[in-house]
Amino acid sequence: MSLFPLPNCEDPPFEGFSGPPIRKRLPLNYWVARIHSRITVVNIYPKRHIYIDKRIWLSYDLRKSEEERFAVTLLANQKIMTQGELAEAFGYNRRTIERFLHLYRKGGFKALIDPSALPDDEETETELKSEPQIDQPSLNFSQEAIAEPSSTVLAEQSFSAAPATAEDTPELLPHGPVVQSRYVGLLLIAPFYNQLMAPLLCCINNLDEQLHSPWKQYRMDNMMAVIITFTINGTYCPEQAKSMFPDEFGVVIGKERGPCCKTIRRFLPAFAQEGLAEELEECLLQRLIELNYVEIGLVHVDGHFVPYFGQYQVGKGYWPQRQGPAKGFEQFWATDHRGRPLFCHLDQAFMAFPTMVERIANYIKSHMEKAGVTEPLIVVFDRGAYSASLFSKLDTAGIGWITYKKNITYQKDSFFTHQVQLMRHNGKLFTTLYEPQQVTIKGYRDDVYGLALYDPKRNTQALLITNLDRLFPESCDPMLLIGGLKDRWAEENFFKNARIGEDIDHLMGYDISPMGDEEYLVPNPEREKALQRLHRIEERHEKVSRRIENLSQEYQQLKRKPSYERWINSNKNKKLLAEHQALANELGKLRDAVAQQPAFIPYNKLKEKELDAFRFHRHRVIMLLKIVAHHLKCQLKELAGQYFDDPRELPKFVDMMLYAGGTYEFGEERDIVRLTPPPVKKFRDAARSLLNAINNRQPCSLDRRQKPIFFGFKDD
């Protein structure tokens, strides 16, 4: 197709006549139709010419229907007429006009000819930008351009030209030199984003970055930036994107527009690619260690139950809020002593907490070795993971552990003779009384080091146990032990804040499928019951054995001594000996029964009905991006804390900066973000210092262009 202006000729008679739609008129040699006060269509067979403000705009061959579709699309892009008026004038349906615009914006002229010919390569968007100049928004002529035909001469161009590369065409198509946006404050995370996300973006370069669908404006790195910035902005699910302004949000991610709800939904399956979550999770943990965003030596591990109220028959777990079983899934979090997350493992609700603690501890230890971290690993967990088997496995792996003992014996206040004073994260001091002691754990190798704790303010007692006295004696200091255990509340505070700040309980779509027959193995409940009975019989047998061993001493202490045979055959002693023999026989049967039963069985065999299971491939990636958002906000808060000395109002100040609107100005060498300054002088002075500190870190855009950004205020 060729577009070119008519040669200079006399103006046609613009006093046209009314009639049927243009597309349905007979191809007579000559007719004129006025379809708008500014637009006139002139038919000079086989050409059709469109005039705007009595000046020639373009012409096309009416024998080619694809050229007319293209001309109508360009005319709709001028926004002189509404789509309804244009559809009525040319004899199309309004939805047909919308479809023309959609195809053109996605694939250019070739898509209008054949909608199935939309390009599948990753340069879809740049291919659109590589079309001739008339395909670009530059065709939307200004009034001056229309008034001067000589300045808008359109040379004949071919639409089969090769697409431009990503390096030749920028991703962003600005609406103008300055864009008003209420979301530009989110770009304050730019210096931390580019630093933290660098290895993750390298990972996805080796993966399929686009969906096999016509909606290819966004790549995987763009969508990751969308979810991170959405999370910081308080938008936690695709449906909430309906309240966003896409034209204003586009500058945040380096696009002309931000994605709508439907686009995000269509893209989410790309996160479910096999192995993507594991690879990104390893890269993020490694990066957090390298940048010292987390302190890896002392790690807190805890579970967080999320209920499920849907129709699928998923496994049940313990829900603390209802103090009973409920359908759902479990989040197993690993955080440092400040409550900053390392990663989150998602699994079914029925998975045993001690098993997950073992997996997480070994996982962290392997990454510490990869990162060259030589300091010892110490994991802290609550009573939910109390298990002699877990303690033995962590000892074998060379991992220290700190936890509470179950079923303690309460002591008098006078029992505690030592005292330690520690400081919480909020700056408040608290006092704890303690007393060292040796603790016996049944099923464990021998006694362990323990600290009996007493809180005089709350009048509560607990018993701390650890293996640090054997593995890492230099770390076995009462102050370090008590402080490390009390820091577990930083993790609980993280749960409380993350449920509100990052909405960690929300799943972006449930991926649920039937559970395989041998997919999830759990401890055999019948074997567990047999083991419990075996332990009770062993305790009773041991007690009876000790009494039999003491019979000779009892006989010697008798004042009136009958013969030993007569005494030993008394009813009392006969009953004791018979009980001992019966217990021994029962012990043999129980041990044989336990040995014959499997230690683990498939979970779905415990239920008569078929069960379903959550599939977390997609959600693990989304949860990882929420962790990134949390760290970015923490880093910005740390930097802001250097210039804002009120810790109580620091979170408010950071939110004020992130939610500040302003303008985004496109420059040749760098872009300029001008924020609306805070109205209060205290905040405004701190904000100015913060912007200077961010500029010193040389922030860049969140897309692949890596365009430098400079921050300032509107009134600067």
List the helices and strands and how they pair.
Layout: E1 30-34, E2 39-44, E3 47-52, E4 55-61, H1 65-78, H2 83-90, H3 94-113, H4 124-129, H5 143-147, E5 178-181, H6 190-204, H7 220-233, H8 246-253, H9 261-267, H10 276-290, E6 298-307, E7 316-319, E8 324-336, E9 341-348, H11 353-370, E10 378-380, H12 388-397, E11 400-404, E12 418-423, E13 429-439, E14 448-455, E15 460-466, H13 468-471, H14 478-486, H15 488-501, E16 512-514, E17 521-523, H16 525-549, H17 551-556, H18 564-568, H19 571-596, E18 600-602, E19 612-614, H20 617-641, H21 650-658, E20 662-665, E21 671-675, H22 681-696, E22 709-713
Parallel strand pairs: 6-10, 10-11, 21-22
Antiparallel strand pairs: 1-2, 2-3, 3-4, 5-20, 6-8, 7-8, 8-9, 11-15, 12-13, 13-14, 14-15, 16-19, 17-18, 20-21
Rg value: 37 Å
CATH architectural type of the largest domain: Alpha-Beta Complex
**Number of domain units:** 4
Shape assignment: elongated
> In CATH terms, what is the fold-level topology of the largest domain?
Transposase Inhibitor Protein From Tn5, Chain A, domain 1
User: Level of helix content?
Assistant: 25-40%
**Poorly predicted segments:** 1-18, 120-176, 208-215
DSSP E strands, number:
22
Highest CATH level, the class of the largest domain:
Alpha Beta
Largest sheet: 10 strands, mixed
Number of helices: 22
CATH H-level homologous superfamily name of the largest domain: Transposase Inhibitor Protein From Tn5, Chain A, domain 1
The fraction of residues assigned to DSSP E strands is 15-25%
Structural class comes to: alpha+beta
Taking the alpha carbons of the first and last residues, their distance comes to 50 Å
Mean pLDDT: 79
